[in-house]
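Priority: medium. Attachment 1 of 2:
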């Protein structure tokens, strides 16, 4: 079976690796001319880490990243810790995988190198402009057509494969929020010579400040040699501008009522970009013929529970497992042409059925987090803060039970086990 994947992002590369581990033929078409060392930090929650472990990638990821020991949620104005949630061993024990933080470029490089080592063909500088669903082909910028038995659109938020499947333009819609994303070298923060900043730098964990309409997230990457800061706030970019240069003076005005330590971090931000945050209404379908979508191409989400890439990774691994099961069936049957097309279509429907419910719940969870994180001063915020003081990530550490109950639906989800169950018992649908 020949699989064409458009996009060498985190989802596309995971799908390539999982497919090669199953001995399927893979070509990845990526529009950028190189896998560039760009980006900021990324968190890999346990459900994503578990997939990486099953694909034998977790050790390499832990080698470059670090396990989040705790997650501190702070009040925006005075920086008071509202909830300090233990994440290290308790999370690993309860959810079967660690919570990891890593530089996005390191993560992508690990996946890229592994995909190549396993024999995937990755063509850089190959921009897909269209998809021919009937022929299971993609069309490149220069007119070249690349055919396969399956085409997987892993081409992100602005996916052109999605337009081909839906047979209409499907631009993402604005969420009303945007993100400033910065990575600091440690020296820049050491130079602030500030005891509170130094205390933050000493933590192997995530710190978030929650406030009206905004929040901020800070954590170390690259063994504490660099630090990631993301500031989320109402979008002020013009309608059709996706990204622009960030402006520190503008940020300091916007965050003027916020905690002094955060403001010191903001004052030291190196040149950075601000990004419009978009998502999609739930799609009527993810697949047509032998063409399908994964990751941000079909379920982009607000990054408010660190799940976007984890979902893309889960999608990629599940798709490969289903397609491998089709390939095994074809090898047994012998009549490849007849079996493949209908069996692939069926596998893609199963994929959609398996993945739509958990990803939709996840996208909605991120929207609920926006409401909870961005509460204005007042009774509801006070109540939230009270609850956070007694909350934890796991049943073992959560005295109220709300947080761990919600988290466990996502963090304990074992995408590959669910897929295996479905392959073994195809009648077991939602
Ligand atoms: C501020 C912020 C913080 C985030 N933090 C986290 C986090 O902590 N944890 C987490 O799990 N997620 C996080 N996310 C979400 C995460 O980044 C995305 O969900 C994830 O990268 C999606 O992966 P993907 O492979 O689907 O798409 P992408 O990573 O977008 O990859 C798509 C790839 O396709 C290529 N491509 C696009 N168009 C074409 C074309 N026409 N032809 C060929 N190639 C093409 C692109 O160059 C790219 O390489 C965050 C997002 C933001 C904005």
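Attachment 2 of 2:
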């Amino acid at each position: 079976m020949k699989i064409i994947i458009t996009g060498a992002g985190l989802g596309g590369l995971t799908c390539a690796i999982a497919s090669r581990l199953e001995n399927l033929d893979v070509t990845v078409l990526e529009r950028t001319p190189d896998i560039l060392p760009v980006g900021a930090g990324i968190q890999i929650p346990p459900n994503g880490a578990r997939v990486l472990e099953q694909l034998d990638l977790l050790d390499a990821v832990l080698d470059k990243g670090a396990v989040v020991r705790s997650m501190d949620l702070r009040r925006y104005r005075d920086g008071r810790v509202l909830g300090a949630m233990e994440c290290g061993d308790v999370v690993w024990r309860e959810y079967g995988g660690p919570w990891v933080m890593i530089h996005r470029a390191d993560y992508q490089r690990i996946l890229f190198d592994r995909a190549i080592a396993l024999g995937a063909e990755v063509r850089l500088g190959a921009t897909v402009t269209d998809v021919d669903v009937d022929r299971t082909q993609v069309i490149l910028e220069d007119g070249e057509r690349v055919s396969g038995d399956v085409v997987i659109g892993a081409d992100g938020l602005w996916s052109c494969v999605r337009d081909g499947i839906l047979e209409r333009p499907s631009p993402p819609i604005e969420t009303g929020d945007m993100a400033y994303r910065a990575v600091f070298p440690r020296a820049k923060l050491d130079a602030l010579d500030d005891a509170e900043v130094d205390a933050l730098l000493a933590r192997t964990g995530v710190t978030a400040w929650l406030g009206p309409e905004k929040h901020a997230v800070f954590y170390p990457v690259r063994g504490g040699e660099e630090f990631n800061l993301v500031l989320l706030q109402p979008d002020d970019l013009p309608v059709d501008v996706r990204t622009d240069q960030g402006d520190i003076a503008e940020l300091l005005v916007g965050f003027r009522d916020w905690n002094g330590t955060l403001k010191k971090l903001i004052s030291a931000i190196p040149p950075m970009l601000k990004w419009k945050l978009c998502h999609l209404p739930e799609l009527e379908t993810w697949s047509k013929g032998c063409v399908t979508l994964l990751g941000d191409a079909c379920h982009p989400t607000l990054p408010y529970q660190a799940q976007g890439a984890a979902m893309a990774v889960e999608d990629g691994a599940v798709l490969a497992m289903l397609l491998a099961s089709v390939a095994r069936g074809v090898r047994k049957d012998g009549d490849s042409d007849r079996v493949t097309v209908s069996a692939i279509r069926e596998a893609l429907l199963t994929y959609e059925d398996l993945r739509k419910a958990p990803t939709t719940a996840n996208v909605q969870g991120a929207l609920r987090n926006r409401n909870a994180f961005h509460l204005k001063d007042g009774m509801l915020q006070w109540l939230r803060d009270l609850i956070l003081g007694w909350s934890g990530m796991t049943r073992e550490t959560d005295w109220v039970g709300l947080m761990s109950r919600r988290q466990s639906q996502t963090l304990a989800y074992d995408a590959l086990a669910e897929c295996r169950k479905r392959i073994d018992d195809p009648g077991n649908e939602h």
